[in-house]
Amino acid sequence: MSNSQNFTSSIIFLLTGVPGLEAFHTWISIPFCFLYATALSGNSLILFVITTQPSLHEPMYYFLSMLSTTDLGLSISTLVTMLGIFWFNAREINFNACLSQMFFIQLFTVMESSVLLAMAFDRFVAISNPLRYATILTHYRIAQIGVAIVIRGTLVQAPLVVLLKRLSYCRSHVLLHSYCFHPDVMKLSCTDTRINSAVGLTALITTAGVDSVFIVLSYVLIIRTVLSIASPEERRKAFSTCVSHIGAVAVFYIPLISLSFVHRFGKGAPPYVHTLIANAYLLIPPVMNPIIYSVKTKQIRKAVLKVLHSRVTKT
């Protein structure tokens, strides 16, 4: 068993850039660099603004800071391997590093789904029970939710890593993406992977699947509450507080659904289509979330402009 584990640890996988467009990797890296710079700077700015502006020390913005943290983690998890391939053709990654990257990508993905659910609950409480909003979502309770999100993601994803380590890999070691993706690694095994597939499907259903159902349920209850408000102006005002969150949910789930459809029904599509959609799936939420909240949330927009103005004035 020990010899088998040592052999597995010595395996080197080869990551893939954009199949068929290898000659253009340097040019392809330009938009990806722009997207990474936007994601890292945007989410860092959101975190800085929420931390430094006392007016934003409220439940809604604490959850937004959690979202920005998960987006930063998701971006950093793929940054090195993706740009390494585009700039230096650095395709090799050892087995343990591959499993570590896979774990953190999926951990932050599950955490993002969980945070979006928590934000839906936040909007439901704020609209349906505004007088008790601050007493229901106390700082302590928000901290508990944050810890629960991390624990949930870790407990769901850890078995996937453990189960991959028990497999033997005697086929091609070429992965289909520029990062380690659980189905890719699993397909390279020459041993039975039915347990891995079942656990992976269960993890997906119990996280993104369950979260999406509860998010929809939350909005059904929110819409029912909003429609019961007599004043049209108050109805509009109440629902406008949900616009940013709806946008964040859309940019998370639409790429996820698109990737699932392409993998299932896009067998005849060029390989680069699969790769670009898979990369977009991980990059679009971290890029778009800071933009959505900065544009659609007045308090965030004012705080960001205030911070940027103060920096410009000092220079």
From TrEMBL:
GO BP term (any one): cellular response to lipid
Subcellular localization: Cell membrane; Membrane
Name of a matching Pfam family: 7tm_4
Membrane topology reported for the UniProt record: Multi-pass membrane protein
The UniProt record lists the keyword Metal-binding: no
GO molecular function, one term: G protein-coupled receptor activity
SUPFAM superfamilies: Family A G protein-coupled receptor-like (SSF81321)
This protein's record includes keyword Phosphoprotein: no
Keywords: Cell membrane, G-protein coupled receptor, Membrane, Olfaction, Receptor, Sensory transduction, Transducer, Transmembrane, Transmembrane helix
Organism domain of life: Eukaryota
Membrane-traversing stretches: 33-51, 72-90, 102-121, 142-164, 198-222, 243-266, 272-292
Record GO cellular component, one term: plasma membrane
Domain G-protein coupled receptors family 1 profile: 42-293
Coiled coil: none
SMART domains: 7TM_GPCR_Srsx
PANTHER family linked: OLFACTORY RECEPTOR, OLFACTORY RECEPTOR 56B1-RELATED
Family to which this protein belongs: Belongs to the G-protein coupled receptor 1 family.
Name the record gives this protein: Olfactory receptor
Annotated source species: Sciurus carolinensis
Taxonomic lineage from the root: Eukaryota, Metazoa, Chordata, Craniata, Vertebrata
